[in-house]
Amino acid sequence: MSPTIAVKVQREPFDVSAEAAALSRGRTDVGAVVTFTGICRGDENGEAIAALNLEHYPGMAETEIESHVAEAARRWPLTGAVVIHRFGRIVPGEDIMMVATASSHRAAAFAAADFLMDYLKTRAPFWKQVEKASGPTWVEAKAEDDSAAARWVKPHQAAE
Amino acid sequence: MSPTIAVKVQREPFDVSAEAAALSRGRTDVGAVVTFTGICRGDENGEAIAALNLEHYPGMAETEIESHVAEAARRWPLTGAVVIHRFGRIVPGEDIMMVATASSHRAAAFAAADFLMDYLKTRAPFWKQVEKASGPTWVEAKAEDDSAAARWVKPHQAAE
Amino acid sequence: MSMMLKLRYFAWVRERIGKPEEDVEIPAGVATVAELMTWLSGRGEEYAHAFDNPKVIRAAIDRSHVKPQAPIAGAREIAFFPPMTGG
Amino acid sequence: MSMMLKLRYFAWVRERIGKPEEDVEIPAGVATVAELMTWLSGRGEEYAHAFDNPKVIRAAIDRSHVKPQAPIAGAREIAFFPPMTGG
Q: D58 - beta bridge partners?
């Protein structure tokens, strides 16, 4: 069976468990499902926030995520993968995005989920603005996210 | 707030989404939840199986898992962790076990889930027997599981 | 020979320039993304502010990430934005 | 001086020995887990079969993993089992 792939960029909340369940439903070759859920915290660098406003580049966001999911499916023997990323206003406690990966064996499912998260952080065209008492500010990209993503660059790509 | 910790060894099925949801309910310091679900596949080395029979060492299974969860909580700044492992007869498509980890940041949640899985595979006293047409056989431990677990041994422990 | 391009701006690049997108006629001689940023910087204070540290600005041509040295010939849509913070 | 121990067997160790547990009087001179395996091997064919490759057998004393060279003095319960395959 071919991998079950889904990529969605949406304003609405999503249901992680329903998405994860869909990866193993009706097939008996799935031995491992990994999910990652990114949740809006109530603080940013110790200062309370009222909400996140997520801006995105419509069209590019979907195609960029799809290309990373396709790359993950080339690197690991996945039976399925789902990525959902929300945009718009999100309050603390709400889910921001999710990744779910499925494979016959756990190592592939773990590695693919970790890979997808690192790439989404540094390559998917989304920008977070936080609403604080001191005014709105754009979240700055973290150097640690770049170095995490660099782990996955193959030697022949390093010069690109 | 202290980490939300739960370890269960049980015959009954479990609900991954309910367990994962409990890790972020009522607190706004959780930014990342990772879940791993191990599912019974329909084949073992290419041969169809009717079921898995999971034997365990009552008492030791719980304390062994609890000690690994406590070690994970010492190594990473977790806000919570749940491990549930079933025993008894499990048919293809059914869940075998789950790990859920939560943290303010994704790297800790991913690493702790990966660590717990590696340790559960090689240290938790469970044994899988598969029911095949050719008769029941005990699943053999994989060298790759030992080497995966060895990734987490700190240098000063390597000689133990 | 000049070319017409759709330019798109996101996050604080959009805020500094004051608009999310515009159609712009690019003069001959502006050949790369880096040169386009330099040229845009000369269009007014809001642009100069947006591009005052071009090293931190990322770009996409027709919705694919590109480096500053990428040629712009043949592009239809070029976007400028800060480093991404999704996930 | 001899000691009474509860022994527990799991998976194919249990199947080969034919019972899940037993209370056994261990003679003086059997001091480590490895020596206990050797002594058990002499108790009959089923034990010899279970412990015919002692390198693959794991042990726990009072529900904690131990190495073959671990002393058994003071133990109440010792378990023998193949490498674990949970997860």
A: D81
Could you tell me how many CB contacts below 8 A there are between chain A and chain C?
A: 71
Instruction: For tokens 């976007």, name the residue.
Output: C79
Determine contact: B140 vs chain D, CB below 8 A.
yes
Q: Residue C76: phi, psi to the nearest 5?
A: -105, -35
Which CATH topology does A4-140 take?
A: Aldehyde Oxidoreductase; domain 3 (3.90.1170)
Model confidence pLDDT, tens digit, residues B11-69: 999 999 999 999 999 999 999 999 999 999 999 888 999 999 999 999 999 999 999 99
Contact call for A41 and B28, based on CB within 8 A: yes
Q: Please, are residues B61 and B85 in contact by the beta-carbon 8 Å criterion?
A: yes
pTM above 0.90, yes or no: yes
* CA pair distance B98, B7, nearest whole angstrom: 10
Q: Which residues are bridge partners to B89 per DSSP?
A: B53
Which chain A residue has the Cα nearest residue B93?
A28
B near D: at least 3 beta-carbon pairs less than 8 Å apart: yes
* Candidates B14, B23, B29, B35, partner chain A, best to mutate (most A CBs within 10 A): B35
Which chain A residue's Cα is nearest to C15?
A138
